[in-house]
């Protein structure tokens, strides 16, 4: 299978995650009105999904190493589709949170399978390029998701958004069965017994370089997750924008992500992915410093938006480079390494976003300061990466 076709199918699969996060963001006000709750409380449905998305990967990753990628990925899609229908029928916030947690299990099995499949097929700089192609394709999903959600709201209500997501999961089952799995290079099943799963996780946890990259992923994703959780509040409540205006500004983040992703691919021919990662983490930090300064001085909306777009857009280069580096050292435990990466990323980011919803979701300054704090930690980890690792990865 060509890298393009592999990236297309895996990109369509991993796009399920951004769709589940972003498609219903414009519906936050209507969900809050329907349940009779504060706007900020709706963010708990997003945080619950993200936290489960992380924890369940700790189970899905090792299972995919042992039993293969196909049953875990297809099983995850089935769970996602069924629970999507149940979310659409939720009659209260508590019901919605419960079914979003269950949906997170299905989403986790899908999320952990995609990077593991990439690591099965390629490694090194080729993996960074393939992750870049997958990222470029999947950027269509978060760019279109709020607009799709706003469109469905104009014809119906928020329930229809989750029914469409369930239908998309069913479509993916058919597409992967017919076009992906029959064409993949065969991968021998791991013979590791269940009792050594802890040992496998310890192998990853003890690898300092891998854990450094996992830390960078956690902190950069937390920065983006804070924005996603509060994006509806920032644009629709704080600045009073309409659903369509919110969708346009949200899509602008994805446009910059895609642009930096395209620029990153040819740069990989001249620079190591570690060097590019450092530069883009620093760029994100600089944009967030500017954002905090503008908000603290009560600057104009257009300047706040520009800083947000600059900061979130940097994810387009950060994610593919960091994913390739984090998985590079575990070719035979790709599912386990991907699970630890995903679990750390989504669980910690979900926890941070949940805390921000409870304690700091009613004003703009605490939100942007939290984003800056996460980015500061990522910069420290990126700058402290051993130079030997950069040389090693550049030579792959």
Automatic annotation (TrEMBL):
Name where it mostly resides: membrane
Q: Where in the cell is it found?
A: Cell inner membrane; Cell membrane
Q: Which keywords accompany this UniProt record?
A: Cell inner membrane, Cell membrane, Membrane, Transmembrane, Transmembrane helix, Transport
Where does the Major facilitator superfamily (MFS) profile domain start and stop, copy by copy? 1-389
Entry keyword annotation includes Transport? yes
Q: Which domain of life is it from?
A: Bacteria
The annotated topology with respect to the bilayer is: Multi-pass membrane protein
Kindly give the InterPro entries that the UniProt entry links to this protein.
Efflux_drug-R_Bcr/CmlA (IPR004812), MFS (IPR011701), MFS_dom (IPR020846), MFS_trans_sf (IPR036259), Sugar_transporter_CS (IPR005829)
- Indicate the transmembrane segments per the record: 44-60, 72-91, 97-118, 130-155, 161-181, 213-234, 246-263, 275-296, 302-321, 333-357, 363-383
Q: Which family does it belong to?
A: Belongs to the major facilitator superfamily. Bcr/CmlA family.
Q: Which NCBIfam families does the UniProt entry name for this protein?
A: efflux_Bcr_CflA (TIGR00710)
What is the protein's given name?
Answer: Bcr/CflA family efflux transporter
